[in-house]
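Researcher: Structure for this, please.
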Amino acid sequence: MRTVSWIVMILFGLIALMHLLRMVYGTEVVVGSMMVPMWASALGFVVAGGLAYAVWWEQHHRRHA
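Model: Predicted structure, token format:
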């Protein structure tokens, strides 16, 4: 797997993990005077986790093709 792919996969994985931890612990996030809803972290978890998986899948299948 290429170095750039590893970096991207790790970054998206960490972002997904941070969203998951926010949902598990119920941490409130306030931007300015507005509270960020929990569904935003659920969406962030799905999107970031999906992108990390997509990078892994592409590199894994490119190597075995």
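Researcher: Any notable elements?
Model: Residues 16 and 46 are 7 Å apart (CA to CA). The chain has one domain: 3-64.
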